[in-house]
TrEMBL record:
It comes from the Bacteria. It comes from Amycolatopsis alkalitolerans. This is ABC transporter permease. Its main location: membrane. One of its GO terms (cellular component) is membrane.
Length: 531
């Protein structure tokens, strides 16, 4: 039988299942660079302010660590590529990782792939369909970004290079996710491995871009290749060969590994557990800890590294704004204070909150995966109650996100305090700024729980809720969106500590709304059918 037979049918099925999530991230990621390009002339209206920006960015390792190399900041296109290429590529990579895993390893984990394989589908059909959907989505994002940049008046060559870098980054990490899906047995482990590779590549790019002596490290990172294309700065088209060749190699490895295992199994199978369960597994909370501990430990380590990294570069971030008062005012408005460093720390705390919201959604989705894998029903056939089981998972969603904020805030405050010799003052301030994000995170977790309780089939839309809140909070102030749009994101209402004054009203309102959504979700779960 043709090993690719039925591919088109599975592509249609995947597109139907992702008809909400994929278009949202394509549009959100694709239009942001063009929407921001128009603000360049407002922030840097003359040659003097642009020259000051260039001098500040080129000579500041902290800025290079965050945004990448500044090749040409004298034009709107060069500024847009420098400001967004790394982070846009990062978001596309994450989206492609989750998409490929969702339609390969997760399908095998739930048993759906075995049913499909019993019909007229080839051995390579599922993997091919997943890669096609992921790569087409990445390509659509790149095309949208290209068309949007050309539409706002930027040069066509630079716009094409920018969009090409986005698409090729997505293709590379689609290949990485395809490989990890063959290596391990569970979708969460496959996502974790691919995300860990993404984190390593981000660190390689950051270190290579900020340290001239070891600048070659950035050439080892697919995230660095999108910047090395040099959009709007005398494009280097030959760099595109690096991600293209890497994609072909990764796809080849994935297709080579696939027939070496059976459906539902992996190259490295999970170790069989002991014949007798440990005493800690005799309660729903103990079982939840066993299921969540790997994910939580990985996130804690990531927040510790990110907190230390961002805290270490805080004292040098003032050079980012150059001599433009407009940029200085915009940056301070994002942080809510007059001091640039305090505004930066406030923005970092806000970013910690947004990333922790992703963890909260991921932890909540574990409940749905346990249900669809038919592991929940046998538990409920015992003395375990529904609310008891759901509460054990929510403990990791709600308290785990609090732990992430505490680790990230403490690490950032500690490293920043060490650099300015004020650890005693900076650690509590940054810890408080990070923990202030909790009500917004809990609200997103509550909305996710509400979907699980009332509309479990649409619980994957939790990613759309989190993505929308993150996009508005992250790019809304820079794009000067109307306040009514900014208010959609719960992170907009969080006080911008450590520089702003703590106001209790928005915190209490967000906490109250989060509590209502959590209770409503639990009530719905208590009454609905399982499965």
């Amino acid at each position: 039988m043709n090993p690719f037979v039925g591919t088109w049918h599975l592509v249609r099925l995947a597109l139907r299942r992702d008809r909400i999530v994929v278009p949202i991230w394509i549009v959100l990621i694709g239009v942001v660079p063009a929407a921001s390009a128009g603000t360049y002339d407002q922030f840097y209206p003359d040659a003097a302010s642009r020259a000051s920006l260039t001098a500040s960015a080129v000579g500041n390792p902290s800025v290079a660590l965050l945004y990448g190399p500044a090749f040409d900041l004298s034009t709107a296109g060069g500024f847009t590529a420098w400001r967004f290429s790394t982070f846009i590529a990062l978001f596309v990579a994450l989206a492609c990782i989750f998409t490929v895993t969702r339609h390969t390893r997760q399908e095998e984990e739930t048993g759906r792939q075995e049913l499909l394989s019993s019909g007229v589908t080839g051995r390579y059909t599922a993997l091919t369909a997943a890669l096609l959907v992921s790569c087409l989505a990445a390509l659509a994002t790149g095309l949208l970004a290209t068309v949007a940049l050309i539409g706002v008046g930027l040069p066509a060559a630079g716009s094409v290079a920018f969009g090409l870098g986005i698409a090729l980054t997505g293709w590379v990490f689609s290949g990485i996710s395809a490989v990890t899906a063959q290596l391990v047995e569970y979708s969460r482990t496959a996502n974790g491995l691919a995300s860990a590779v993404l984190g390593v590549t981000f660190l390689l790019r950051g270190v290579g871009d900020s340290a001239k002596d070891i600048s070659w490290l950035s050439w080892l990172s697919p995230l660095g290749w999108s910047a090395q294309l040099r959009p709007f700065a005398h494009e280097r088209w030959w760099v595109a060969l690096l991600p293209l060749v890497t994609t072909v190699v990764l796809f080849g490895v994935a297709y080579w590994l696939l027939p070496k295992r059976d459906v539902g199994l992996s190259i490295y199978p999970s170790r069989p557990g002991p014949a007798v369960a440990a005493p800690g597994l005799r309660s729903p909370l103990g079982l939840a800890w066993r299921l969540h501990r790997g994910l939580l430990i990985g996130w804690v380590a990531g927040f510790a590294v990110a907190g230390a990294l961002f805290g270490a570069l805080a004292s040098g971030i003032g050079g980012l704004v150059g001599g433009s008062e407009q940029v200085r005012e915009a940056f301070e408005r994002m942080g809510g204070a007059s001091a640039i460093v305090d505004a930066y720390l406030a923005a970092i705390a806000n970013i910690f909150g947004m990333i922790a919201a992703v963890y909260a959604v991921q932890a909540n989705l574990r409940m749905r995966s346990e249900e669809t894998a038919v592991r929940l029903e046998p538990l409920l056939a015992t003395h375990v109650r529904r609310l008891q089981w759901a509460g054990s998972h929510l403990a990791f969603s709600l308290l785990g996100s609090a732990l992430l904020l505490a680790v990230g805030g403490t690490a950032a405050g500690l490293l920043h305090g060490l650099r300015i010799s004020d650890v005693r003052g900076e650690v509590p301030a940054m810890l408080g700024a990070s923990m202030a994000q909790l009500p917004a995170i809990w609200l997103i977790a509550g909305l996710s729980m509400l979907l699980f309780g009332l509309l479990p089939k649409y619980m994957s839309a939790s990613w759309s809720i989190a993505s929308l809140a993150l996009a508005i909070a992250l790019y809304g102030p820079v794009l000067r969106l109307p306040q009514a749009v900014l208010d959609i994101s719960p992170f907009t209402h969080i006080p911008k500590l450590p520089s702003a004054t703590l106001t209790a009203a928005p915190v209490l309102w967000l906490t109250g709304i989060a509590l209502v959504t959590l209770v409503a979700g639990l009530a719905g779960f208590r009454r609905r059918d399982i499965g």
